[in-house]
Amino acid sequence: MRVVVADLMLTREGITRLLTDAGVEVVGEAGDAGSLLRAVRMTQPDAAVVDIRMPPTHTDEGLVAAQQIRAEHPTVGVLILSQYIEPRYAMQLLEDHPERVGYLLKERVFDVANLIDALRRLADGETVVDPTIVARLFARKRHTDPLDQLTEREREALALVAEGLSNRAIAARLFITERTVEAHVKQIFLKLGLSTDPQSHRRVLPASPICAA
Question: Given a cut of 50, is residue 197 above it in pLDDT?
């Protein structure tokens, strides 16, 4: 696997070392969005690991660059990293480019198993989002609970997502096809209003991304 890493210096060096030690080829490093885009164009990696906040304003430069990468290079996966839970930024990217996109808290990527698993799933065309989302979905209190809208099978699928199962594993557990799992997941997101709720994510990781249809 060939990867470009874009982050602030210390974090970038740490991630690069983890990837290299795990046998991943780091073909480019960048400290800002412009350098990231140039590195991706020159190297055509399998994936880019990108900090959501990059110079000069440290707001959403990484997100904007990730959107451009997905638009210009559809085979390149993008793993967005954030110091904080920032669902609205993740949703912007996921809604426009649901395939080969990931969103993780930085604290998770220093577990090399999580990082490598996320990159491999992106390479397989899946979407990977930090596991905090499912916990939020179940813990969230509303006057009208959106979970009441789910069918029994959709609740079963969501519970397995919460356990960290992949689409393939969920399909095997429920004796249905992976395509059916994808359909259930899409309905779950639609019913829970995740495309408009800035306090939620679309999927979980480490072991539970969504394959885009």
Answer: no
Beta-carbon contacts of 152 under 8 Å, excluding residues fewer than 6 positions away, are none
Residue partners of 115: CB distance under 8 A and separation at least 6: 15, 18, 19, 22, 49, 108, 109
Amino acid at residue number 32:
D
> H or E segment at 143?
none
Reduced to 3 states (helix: H, G, I; strand: E, B; else coil), residue 37 is helix
- pLDDT for position 209: 41
HSE toward the beta carbon, residue 203, CA cutoff 13 A: 31
Tell me the CA end-to-end span of the chain in Å, nearest whole number: 23
Which of 1 and 163 is assigned the larger pLDDT?
1
Q: Is the pLDDT of residue 212 over 50?
A: no
List CB contacts of 114: < 8 A, sequence separation 6 or more: 104, 108, 205, 206
Structure tokens at 116: 């490598």
| CATH architecture under which domain 131-213 falls | Orthogonal Bundle (1.10)
pTM: 0.67
Q: Which CATH number fits domain 1-130: 3.40.50.2300, 3.40.47.10, 3.40.50.720, 3.40.640.10?
A: 3.40.50.2300
Q: Average of pLDDT values for 29-43? A: 95
Task: Please report, for the chain, the start and end positions of each structural domain, with discontinuous segments joined by +.
Answer: 1-130, 131-213
pLDDT category at 130 given cuts 50, 70, 90 is confident
Residue-wise DSSP of 169-187: HHHHHHTS-HHHHHHHHHH
